[in-house]
Every structure is written in structure tokens, then in C-alpha cells.
Design brief:
The complex is a heterodimer. By secondary structure, chain A is an all-alpha fold. Chain A has helices at residues 2-29, 34-39, 45-55, 61-73, 87-122, 127-141, 144-158, 174-179, 182-208, 211-218, 223-251, 255-260, 266-275, 279-307. Chain B contains 12 helices and 12 strands. Classes of the chains: A mainly alpha, B alpha/beta.
Chain lengths: 313, 338
């Protein structure tokens, strides 16, 4: 177990090293001088030179790479051009809404999708199966911005149950802040539940026909026990993969949803950074998102080890 | 409920198990009758599609839709002497009987155990389901069962996962699990088919020994008449969902009264018979044609199209199962001549 974790950790670090290099190269191959591009045609040569220094774009490529990697290792992702704060600070300040949004929407998606997926596989072909299949198709094809707007219109504007947007004031309590996530998390949860539901159904269908499920029945246990203890645990292995990928997707900023609900999260930060060509922020966000992706994959791999005794890395 | 002779543990009477779809009815089992006596072994023999496995699943109540018992009785006497009709038993009744009174082992030892639990857990689960026992006691009993099925170094194998064992070992684990609650009936559905020949005979030996020790009756499903000779007292031969011949093992092997049984026996490889001293090989007999689809059976005898003794009447008159000797039944118009 420990050995496997170590192996995966090494693989993880390798991926991150490659990501760091790619991010470094991308900025360098951008046509023209990034500093000049950022400052626009009216900037003086002195301004451009000053920005070049701030971005670490002076010196040879090797020197630049060394100082860039050195910065990352020290936890320094540079300075945002427009926000007047270090990139790490900018990211950190916007991490909370995204983090909780991810957790909540994943929780909603899972609690909705798993039981429905299991039930529709168990009663395959029934009206319940057909109804949920249709629902899943709807959830998968509805755009999240539209669903978000409908929710705002209905539950925030119409019924007044939830705030329309934002993440509360600067001094609002954690409870208040989380309350602002109710609608965006439901929106994202519904949209991502479709995939999880379909996957759960397919995976359960596979497993319910397996020989060991028949063996379990022949032992004289309740159907509940057959389905949960013997079938679901086996079906969970592919479902975990989808859960992990969904989580990673959500972490990288549910960009559209955060924009619709004006949530000051990572997705929102990335959008505004791209619009303003705030290169250091884009670079930093890329690294963090890639890092989280890798981390989630690592956690999923570890879960495989826990669930399936046949898996060895 | 009809009465059951005291020495009979299982009586299948005119069992019909059909698979109904909107357009066709597949009569997988169509009027099968046999009795199994306490402590004895009855073999049900036939090719794939003969209905032998469906018969065993019907007894266990493990049919899945669209399959279902259409009519007939499956009378089973439990260890307390209570007679149950399994053709009409409720899910609750089955839950109590399965594992505790009737246990089953399957053809595929490689896939019949849950890959995510240790063999100790899986045997222990069987015990925990039916006996009031602490976890530690159940584990001790599981270990004892592994020793009964002669798994070497049993104490260390208890925490193994199925994938760490060979097919033969896994089938032993299945047997250990099946017998863990001392059931009065063991249904073995082709338990040796997926195994190497040497392992096959080990498993058959083991089953015979365990039968002496535990006293359970065995319903043994197989397509291999060679295996039947090893283990059974009574034989039922099935073809296209019906019993075509039913006899005690010795008379059956001495004189088959149904052409299908003769064919089956001729198909069994036999080195002593087929290989001459000079190394010449006799061609192994095979029954021409294949089993007709169960939804399109000929009007007369289902075997007639493949039968070398078939006469005109065979393709129009459905033969009945008739006595052709002492405890010997055959479903053939020409049984008397064979």
C-alpha cells in the first residue's frame, strides 16, 4: 500500500514537472513580447522593460526557467498585473467558493445519481428506468447557464428563497456564504449527476449479471444485501473514475456557473485574467488547476487500492 | 400439498419452467419429474440447452425474468422434516432455505466468488447469515471448512482473495462455503466442467467423501456421463427440456434404452476403447446435427431429426416416458427394440 502510494507520488511529481515546463514554454512562444502585448501600443520602452523584469522575461531562457522554477518551489507564482497582489494571494482568496461549490455539487450529484442509477439498473426496462433515463438525458443536455438562470428566476427572484448571486458581503458568516452556494451547487449537481447516473446504471447492469451475484443470492441473503454489499462494491470501481473526473472538472472552476451566479471563485478569476491578459494569473491558475487534477487522480488511485484487492501499482 | 415419501428429500413433479417473451414461449423445462432420496446423488445429464441448469435454478428459485415456473411442484423436505413447495415458495422462505438447507455450487469457480472479499469473509458470511455465532466463531468454522475441503495451509489461505487461488482451489472454497451450514441438499451445477481433468477427479473424490461425512443429498448437473458413473446412484437424461431416460446408474450404463443416451455415451472419449495397440485411433462418435431451438421443436420426438433409429412415426407422434425395466424409464417409441 505504502509502496504503491510512493510509486504514484513519483508519477504525480513527474506530471507536475511536465506541466510546469509546458506552462513556461507557452508564455515564451506567444508571438511578440508578452510585456509589450500586455501594456499595449502606447507604452514607453522603459515601461515595457520594467514589466519584462517583473515578469522574469529578462536574461537568457535558461536563467528565466531557473528563476521561474525557483519561484514555484518557494511558493511564489509572481505578481498579478491588474490585481496589485501576488498570484498566490489572488488564487487563495478565490479558492473558498470554488472549493465548497465543488464539494456541494459533487455531494448533490452523488446522492441523486447513485441511488437512481442503482435502482434503474436493478429494475431495468421498468417505467422507473425509462423515466430516469429520460431525465438523465435532459440533465446532460441542458446548458448550465440556462438552468442557473431558470433557478435564479424561480427560486431567487420569484420565490425569494435564495440570494440571486454573489457570495455574501466581506463580513458575512460562513453560514451566510455557504447559503449563497445553494443554487449554483444544485445547478452544477444536476448537470453532473447525469453522467454519474448513466455510469452507475451501466456499471451495475454489468455486475448484476456476474456469477458472484448469483452465488450471493444462493447463500440466502436479502436482495438489499446482494445489491449493496456484493454488486455495488464491484460496480463502484468504474464509478470512482467518473466521480474523480467530475470532481477535477468542477475544481478547475465551473467557469460558466461561477459567472452566472457572480461567484468570486477560481473560474471567475480565470475568465477575468484571460480577458485582461493577466499572464501571471493565467499561469498560476493553470498550475494550480493541473496540480489539483493530478491530486484528484492520485486520490482515486488510492481509493482503487482500498476497494479492489487485485489492483497493484 | 401432495405427500412426500419419508426417505425422499426432493421431489420434482411435472415441472414446467418457461421463458415467455411477447411473441414466443421457450419451454426450457417442460414436464420434468424426478425424486432424490436422502443421502443419495442424482445426476441430471444433457447437452447445453437441454434444460438441466434451468431445472437447478428453478429449484433454487434463482430464475430471472422472463423465466418463471409455469406449473408443477418442487417438494423439498428440510432438516426438521417440514415439506416446502419450492415452486411456490416466497422470497422470505427461500432466504431461509438457501444456504442453510439447500446450497449450490456453480460451473465457473473463477467468477463465482466475489473478487473483493477474502475467502474467509465469504465463507464467514454464509455462516453469519444462518447461524447465531460470533464473528470469531464464524471465522473458526470457516477455517474448519477449509480444512474439510483439504486446502493445504488453510489457516494462511483464510485471508486470501479469490484471485490469489487457482480454479481448483476456488471450487474447493465454493464447496466449503456451500457446506458451511450443513445443508441437507447440495445442488452442483457442472462443478467440474471448467477444471483440468486431474483436478476434476480430485473434486469428485472430495464431494464423495464429504457426502459420507456430512450426509447431504446431491443433485449433480453435468453433461459428462463419465462423471456420472463416478458419483451418482440415479441418472436423469434430459433433452430439449424433457426427461428422455431415467434409471439407476448401473442399469443405465449396462443398457441404454434411449438412442440419445446411447449417443451421449458413445461420445465420451475412452482411451482403452478408441486407441488400438498399434496406435490407430477409432473415430470418436458424435451425434449428427445439433439440439433444435427450444422454440421450434418438431411435433413428434424432439430427438428424431438426429436419431439413427428414427422411423416415420417418430416425427409425428410425441413419445411418452414409459417404464422399460425395473425403475427404468425411456421416452422412445422404439425402446422395446433397442
Amino acid at each position: 500500500m505504502l509502496r504503491a502510494a510512493l510509486n504514484r507520488l513519483i508519477g504525480m511529481l513527474t506530471v507536475m514537472a511536465i506541466v510546469v515546463t509546458i506552462v513556461f514554454v507557452i508564455v515564451r512562444v506567444t508571438p511578440g513580447d508578452p510585456a509589450a502585448v500586455m501594456l499595449g501600443p502606447d507604452a514607453t520602452a522603459a515601461d515595457v522593460e520594467a514589466l519584462r523584469q517583473r515578469l522574469g522575461l529578462d536574461g537568457t531562457i535558461l536563467q528565466q526557467f531557473v528563476s521561474y522554477v525557483g519561484g514555484i518551489l518557494r511558493g511564489d507564482l509572481g505578481q498579478s498585473i491588474f490585481l496589485g497582489q501576488p498570484v498566490t494571494t489572488a488564487l487563495w482568496l478565490r479558492a473558498e467558493p470554488t472549493f465548497f461549490l465543488t464539494i456541494f455539487s459533487l455531494a448533490i450529484a452523488t446522492t441523486v445519481a447513485l441511488p437512481i442509477g442503482i435502482a434503474s439498473a436493478y429494475w431495468r426496462g421498468s417505467w422507473f428506468d425509462q423515466a430516469t433515463t429520460t431525465l438523465a438525458m435532459f440533465a446532460a443536455s441542458v446548458p448550465s447557464f440556462w438552468l442557473g438562470l431558470v433557478f435564479i428566476q424561480t427560486f431567487a427572484v420569484g420565490l425569494g428563497w435564495f440570494p440571486t448571486s454573489g457570495y455574501g458581503g466581506p463580513y458575512s458568516s460562513l453560514g451566510e456564504r455557504l447559503f449563497h452556494l445553494a443554487l449554483p451547487a444544485t445547478t452544477l449537481g444536476i448537470v453532473s449527476s447525469a453522467l454519474i447516473m448513466r455510469f452507475t446504471r451501466a456499471s451495475m447492469l454489468d455486475v448484476l449479471n456476474d456469477d458472484y451475484v448469483r452465488t450471493a443470492r444462493s447463500k440466502g441473503m436479502s436482495e438489499w444485501r446482494v445489491v449493496i454489499r456484493h454488486a455495488l462494491k464491484n460496480a463502484l470501481i468504474p464509478i470512482l473514475t467518473v466521480l474523480g473526473l467530475t470532481a477535477a472538472l468542477l475544481i478547475s472552476g465551473a467557469i460558466v456557473t461561477e459567472t452566472v451566479f457572480a461567484l468570486p471563485g477560481i473560474g471567475n478569476l480565470i475568465v477575468s485574467a484571460v480577458l485582461r491578459r493577466d499572464y501571471p494569473v493565467i499561469q498560476g491558475a493553470l498550475l494550480i488547476v493541473a496540480g489539483l487534477y493530478v491530486l484528484v487522480n492520485f486520490l482515486i488511485d488510492m481509493l482503487y487500492l482500498l476497494v479492489d484487492p487485485r489492483v497493484r501499482y | 400439498m401432495s405427500d412426500l415419501a419419508p426417505d425422499t428429500i426432493l421431489s420434482v413433479r411435472d415441472l414446467r419452467t418457461w421463458f415467455k417473451s411477447r411473441r414466443v414461449i421457450a419451454k426450457a423445462v417442460d414436464g420434468v419429474t424426478f425424486d432424490l432420496k436422502r443421502g443419495q446423488t442424482l445426476a441430471v445429464v444433457g447437452e447445453s440447452g437441454s434444460g438441466k441448469s434451468v431445472t437447478s435454478l428453478s429449484i433454487m428459485g434463482l430464475l430471472s425474468p422472463p423465466g418463471g415456473i409455469e406449473s408443477g411442484e418442487v417438494l423439498f423436505r428440510d432438516s426438521k422434516g417440514v415439506v416446502h413447495d419450492l415452486a411456490r415458495a416466497s422470497a422470505r422462505e427461500f432466504r431461509r432455505l438457501r444456504g442453510k438447507e439447500i446450497a449450490m455450487i456453480f460451473q465457473e469457480p473463477m467468477t463465482s466468488l466475489n473478487p473483493l472479499y477474502t475467502v474467509g469473509d465469504q465463507i464467514g458470511e454464509m455462516i453469519a447469515l444462518h447461524e447465531r455465532m460470533s464473528h470469531a466463531e464464524a471465522r473458526r468454522r470457516a477455517l474448519e471448512m477449509l480444512r474439510h475441503v483439504e486446502i493445504p495451509d488453510a489457516a494462511n489461505r483464510l485471508d486470501d482473495y479469490p484471485h490469489q487461488m487457482s480454479g481448483g482451489m476456488r471450487q474447493r472454497v465454493m464447496i466449503a462455503m456451500a457446506l458451511a451450514c450443513n445443508p441437507s441438499l447440495l445442488i452442483a451445477d457442472e462443478p467440474t466442467t471448467a477444471l483440468d481433468v486431474t483436478i476434476q477427479s480430485q473434486i469428485l473424490d472430495l464431494l464423495r467423501r464429504l457426502q459420507d461425512q456430512f450426509g447431504m443429498s446431491i443433485l449433480f448437473i453435468t453433461h459428462n456421463l463419465g462423471v456420472v458413473a463416478e458419483i451418482a446412484q440415479d441418472v436423469v437424461v434430459m433433452y430439449s427440456g424433457r426427461v428422455v431416460e431415467h434409471a439407476p446408474v448401473v442399469p443405465l450404463f449396462r443398457k441404454q434404452k434411449h438412442p440419445y443416451t446411447q449417443g451421449l455415451l458413445a461420445c465420451t472419449p475412452n482411451a482403452a476403447r478408441d486407441l488400438s495397440a498399434s496406435g490407430e485411433r477409432k473415430a470418436l462418435y458424435s451425434i449428427p446435427g445439433s439440439v433444435p431451438p427450444i422454440t421450434a421443436l418438431p411435433p413428434g420426438c424432439a430427438f428424431a431429426p438426429r436419431c439413427r433409429y428414427a422411423i416415420d412415426a417418430c416425427s409425428s407422434i410425441p413419445p411418452q416416458l414409459e417404464a422399460v425395466g425395473d425403475h427404468h424409464l425411456s421416452r422412445c417409441l422404439r425402446s422395446a427394440e433397442l
